[in-house]
Structures are given as C-alpha cells and as structure tokens.
Design goal:
It is elongated and about 75 Å long. The chain contains three helices and no strands. By secondary structure, the protein is mainly α.
Length: 121
C-alpha cells in the first residue's frame, strides 16, 4: 500500500521510470525501423521495375523491335540513375542489399512473364 503523504508526484516510481526509458528507446528504434522498411520497399520496387524493363529490353533487342528497345533503354537509364541516387543519399545497410537482390530476382521473373505477353514468345 502506498503512503500518500510520503509519495512525491514529481519523481516517478523506479519501475515506471525504467518503463518510460524503454518506451523512449523503442520510439527511436521504431522510427529507424520505419525508415528501414521504406528504404527496403523503395529499393525493392526500383530493382523489380528495372530488371523487368531489362528483361523486356533483351527480348525487344532479340526481336529487332526498335521502338520497344528505345523505350526500354530510356527506362533502364532512368531507373539506374534513381537507384544510384537513392542508395547514395541513404545509410547503407544489409536490408538495402537484400532488397536490391530480391528486387532483381523478382523483376527478372515478372519481366519474363510480362515480355511474353507484350512481345510474344
């Protein structure tokens, strides 16, 4: 039982103080996690689209389709520039590397499926 006369309202109970300190740390970690997830999603998306366009470009070159080749070359250059710029401006970490790899793998797969429907088999 708490003795109300001896309780100081300005100083939190030690357990509460420890909890408040953990919440502050958690809030900082949560912000870093949100930034990491956004970074992961952006790099994954850029790589997915890039490798999809590269795959379509390869098929367009093989079929000697000049308009499709020019269009996809433009996309490749723009996406490469955007990816390099994004990575250069943000903190490098393992999540960026993993998202880069997974986006590349996924993009090639989607590109093969999409290029079959766009340019034929």
């Amino acid at each position: 039982m708490i003795n109300i006369t001896s309780y100081n309202r300005d100083l939190p109970e030690p357990r509460l103080k420890g909890l408040l300190e953990r919440i502050r740390i958690t809030k900082v970690n949560l912000n870093a996690t949100i930034i990491g997830i956004k970074s992961f999603a952006i790099i994954f998306g850029l790589q997915l689209i890039l490798y999809c366009v590269v795959t379509i470009n390869t098929r367009a070159i093989a079929q000697a389709s000049i308009p499709a080749t020019v269009f996809t070359d433009f996309g490749i250059a723009a996406l490469n520039w955007a990816t390099i710029r994004f990575i250069a401006k943000h903190q490098d970490n393992a999540f960026q590397f993993i998202s880069y790899l997974l986006g590349s793998i996924s993009g090639s797969t989607v590109g093969i499926l999409l290029s079959k429907s766009l340019l034929g088999s």
